Amino acid sequence: MLQQFYPQVFHDYRYELNKDMQMAAAHFIDHQDAGRCRDTHGHTYFINITIAGDALDDAGFLVDFKTLKDEIHGAYDHTLLNDHPRFAEGLPTTEVVARVFWEQVDERLAARENRPYCLQVLVRETPTSYAIYRPKRGDHR
Ligand SMILES: Nc1nc2c(c(=O)[nH]1)N=C([C@H](O)[C@H](O)COP(=O)(O)OP(=O)(O)OP(=O)(O)O)CN2
Ligand SMILES: [Zn+2]
């Protein structure tokens, strides 16, 4: 089930879009405090990505919704997150997954002429648990 209500990001950009997606992925948290999560297990992750900017491209897009889906779902659906180089230095907790997805999306956006920004990535790991990554002002390009 895709979620219908999200924490808002307050900003001054003219345009904002949100892309929802969900994906199946496995992970394990290799840490003594992780309890049962030390064993490999799977989740249906729900992800919401918030993009904003002042300018659209020639097609009238901040960024194509499909680009965002390709970047995250295309890379991680039906995979073991721990196998990905982007998670090599961190444990794929919900918080870290949100931050890594933000880094990946914002790198992709940086290559666009209209220069949109990723303001927030929300990652829901279970029906009762989610995390959000938002860059600090100084983290922006
Ligand atoms: N800060 C974090 N705490 C926990 C994480 C995490 O990523 N960040 N992860 C886990 C587990 O991996 C698990 O995926 C989620 O745990 P939890 O919400 O406790 O899952 P339950 O379904 O058992 O929770 P209920 O309260 O029974 O719904 C643990 N902690
Ligand atoms: Zn888990």
UniProtKB/TrEMBL annotation:
GO molecular function: 6-carboxytetrahydropterin synthase activity; metal ion binding
Keywords recorded for this protein, A-Z: Lyase, Metal-binding, Queuosine biosynthesis, Zinc
Enzyme class: lyase
Cofactor: Zn(2+)
Protein name: 6-carboxy-5,6,7,8-tetrahydropterin synthase
Entry-linked NCBIfam families: queuosine_QueD
Cross-referenced SUPFAM superfamilies: Tetrahydrobiopterin biosynthesis enzymes-like
Keyword hit for Metal-binding: yes
Catalytic activity: 7,8-dihydroneopterin 3'-triphosphate + H2O = 6-carboxy-5,6,7,8-tetrahydropterin + triphosphate + acetaldehyde + 2 H(+)
Binding positions for Zn(2+) per the UniProt entry: 27, 41, 43
GO biological process: tRNA queuosine(34) biosynthetic process
EC number from the UniProt entry: 4.-.-.-
InterPro entries, A to Z: 6-PTP_synth/QueD, 6-PTP_synth/QueD_sf
Organism: Natribacillus halophilus
The keyword Coiled coil belongs to this UniProt entry's keyword annotation: no
Pathway(s) annotated for this protein in UniProt: Purine metabolism; 7-cyano-7-deazaguanine biosynthesis
Family: Belongs to the PTPS family. QueD subfamily.
Note on cofactor: Binds 1 zinc ion per subunit.
Highest taxon, organism lineage: Bacteria
Active site: 37, 78, 125
